[in-house]
Amino acid sequence: MTDAAIRLRGVVKRFGSLTAVDGLDLEVPYGTCVGLLGPNGAGKSTTMKMLTAQVVADEGVIEVLGHRLPGDSKQARAEMGVVPQLDNLDVSLTVEQNLRVFAHLYRVPKGERRAAIDRTLEIANLAERRTAKVDELSGGMRRRLLIARALLHRPRLLLLDEPTVGLDPQVRQELWALIDRLRSEGVSILMSTHYIEEAERLCDLVTIVSHGRAVAVGPPQDLIAEHAGGEALEVYGSPARLAEVEAQARRRGWRTRRTGTSVAVLHADGDHALDGERRAANLEDVFVLLTGEEIA
Fold it and tell me: What is the model's pTM?
């Protein structure tokens, strides 16, 4: 057995003239939550589809739970749970009926299906809604049901593709608590996201991707310390003032990022040569420095 639930080495996927994934290396150690962080079009969803063998890589090596893909994809899929970005629940069925269908598809033994459904409803905090039709549920409840569905067969690995996209901040917090619980129980998790706070809050390791390549890998706080320092200086002013600040920062060897009417000066810890509002550096600073893109 390998020491990682997921291992990608030099993976490439092309769609005609478009290279969606370009030599990607990615690793998910057992028992960790790893965030695949990047802007739209960075190759996150294509990577998720390759891990479930919906898409076959053109080059490179993909191993999931010790199985080589795509050859051993059936064995790998039997041991993983998948939460898709798009809601594909059957709205004509109740919550419990949706789970019953997938308990059968996941080959949960007949005598264990009721217990599996009860267990996952409890995990997702949906026990009181088991007889409700899916189209009666809120967006957050439907997301929780998608996660419950993926947990029916007690998977060793959970793939979450943009799990909180389109949800209100309050509902997102509920989903974070559920993901936190799964991580604490030892489930290995790969989560693609473009929410900075989500990656910083939930993930043991983050892989930042840009144009299909990994541009940084590590624990969120380590990436912040390496690329942005402990403190950032936020300077506000006119375009001329901001250009002057950027020039001063370059002369001192500091990196900057422009955000609207302000410039954030990074690695300026303890230096008071510039006036501005001091704040802790964060993963968003790192993301913008490394990809050159703001996250929507």
Answer: 0.90
